[in-house]
Amino acid sequence: xxxxxxxxxxxxxxxxxxxxxxxxxxxxxxxxxxxxxxxxxxxxxxxxxxxxxxxxxxxxxxxxxxxxxxxxxxxxxxxxxxxxxxxxxxxx
Length: 92
Prior knowledge:
This protein is an all-alpha fold. It has one domain (9-90). It contains 3 helices and no strands.
């Protein structure tokens, strides 16, 4: 298969890698904001509202889950025969 043709495995892998990189950056921003909110409230001596605390924890869990999913996708793109179940068990 010509890897320079549109739709080739190599081009698909490269496109997915770029998308994963962009998503990882967005996840880092979300994670950073949750940490910043928590840190600023702690430094100000202001408690965190329980609803806000739950929301921040949910964002952190979601970003962690999304990172694992992105890592799994990248591994599968590099080696479609890889056993992803061992990777998912590690993070469970």
